[in-house]
Design goal:
Layout lengths: L8 H15 L5 H8 L3 H8 L10 H7 L4 H15 L3 H14 L4 E4 L11 H11 L6 H7 L6 H13 L3 E3 L5 E3 L3 E4 L5 H21 L16 H23 L23
Parallel strand pairs: 1-4
Antiparallel strand pairs: 2-3
Length: 271
C-alpha cells in the first residue's frame, strides 16, 4: 500500500481489515475493534467513513497498522485534516502532507533493464536535462566523466528512446519523460547489483580522479544493535527521498552528480 496515495486516514484501516480478512476468513470487526478498544458496530461506521476514530484509539491504530516514522506522521496529519473545520489550518496541514509524499518514480520493466546495463546510460539521460536535450554526441561523450565514446553516447540515447525514457521533440532535441527511476522485482536483482557495483567502483576511482573540492566522500564505522540498525536504515531511506525532492526543486542544473550510500556490516559479535 503506497501510503502517499491515501487521502483519508480511514482508508488505512479499511485496507488493513480487507487484507486481514483475505488472510484469515474468520477475522471480524469485533476482533479488530478489540485491538482498537472499540465495539464492532462503531468500527464498522468508521470504516464506512460515517464516524471518526476517537483520539484515544490513535496509538493502537498506528500499532496494528505497523506505522512508524514518516508513515505515522502522515497518518496523524490525515487524521487532523479530517477533523479540523478551520480552512487555514487545513491548508497548513495539507502543505505538511505534501512535504511527506514520495517523488513520482518510473518503475523499470524487464525490457527496460538495458538502461542500467552500463553506468553511463542514466548519466547521459541526466546530462540531456542539463543541456536542454541537444544531441551533440561528441560533446556529450567528452563532458561525461570518466569520458565515454561518441558511439556509447549515441547508443545510450537510442536505448533511452527505445524504452520511452526520452522522447523526440519537433525541434530535433529530446526531453525526459520521467524524473526518477526505480527497479523492483526479484528477477531484476542481478541487473541492479551489477549497476550498483559499477557506480561504487566509480565512487572509489573518484577519490583519486576528482578534486576534493568537487566531491564529498566520508565514512563512519559504527557499533550498533538491531534497533539502532533499523532506525539508521529508515533514516537513510528518508534521506534519499528528501534528496530526490530537493533535486526536483533545482531550476538550472549545471552538473550531474552520482550519490552512493553504502551501509553494510564489517564485523559481527559471535555468541
Amino acid at each position: 500500500m503506497n501510503f502517499s496515495d491515501i487521502a483519508d486516514y480511514r482508508d488505512f484501516l479499511k485496507e488493513f481489515y480487507k487484507r486481514r480478512k483475505a488472510e484469515m476468513p474468520f477475522y471480524s470487526y469485533r476482533m479488530m475493534g478489540d485491538k482498537l478498544g472499540l465495539d464492532s458496530s462503531y468500527l464498522y461506521r468508521i470504516l464506512q467513513k460515517k464516524q471518526h476514530l476517537p483520539t484515544h484509539a490513535l496509538p493502537a491504530a498506528k500499532e496494528i497498522l505497523a506505522l512508524s516514522g514518516r508513515q505515522a506522521e502522515y497518518f496523524d496529519l490525515l487524521y487532523s485534516i479530517a477533523l479540523t473545520k478551520d480552512k487555514n489550518k487545513r491548508e497548513e496541514l495539507t502543505t505538511k502532507i505534501l512535504s511527506l509524499q514520495d517523488v513520482n518514480r518510473h518503475s523499470l520493466q524487464q525490457a527496460e533493464l538495458k538502461v542500467i546495463e552500463n553506468w553511463w546510460i542514466p548519466v547521459v539521460r541526466a546530462y540531456l536535462e542539463l543541456n536542454g536535450g541537444v544531441l551533440n554526441y561528441k560533446k556529450i561523450a567528452s563532458d561525461i566523466f570518466p569520458p565515454i565514446t561518441e558511439s556509447q553516447a549515441k547508443d545510450a540515447v537510442e536505448t533511452l528512446l527505445e524504452v520511452g525514457l526520452l522522447k523526440k521533440l519537433a525541434s530535433g532535441r529530446v526531453a525526459l519523460t520521467n524524473s526518477h527511476l526505480t527497479v523492483g522485482g526479484i528477477e531484476k536483482s542481478k541487473a541492479v547489483r551489477n549497476f550498483q557495483r559499477e557506480v561504487l567502483n566509480l565512487a572509489a576511482e573518484s577519490l583519486e580522479s576528482v578534486p576534493v573540492q568537487e566531491r564529498n566522500i566520508s565514512t563512519l564505522t559504527l557499533s550498533v544493535d538491531q534497533s539502532c540498525f533499523d532506525d539508521l536504515t529508515e533514516m537513510l531511506r528518508e534521506f534519499r527521498r528528501l534528496v530526490q525532492k530537493r533535486v526536483d526543486e533545482s531550476k538550472s542544473p549545471d552538473k550531474v552528480m552520482q550519490l552512493s550510500m553504502a551501509f553494510y556490516p564489517v564485523a559481527h559479535k559471535k555468541n
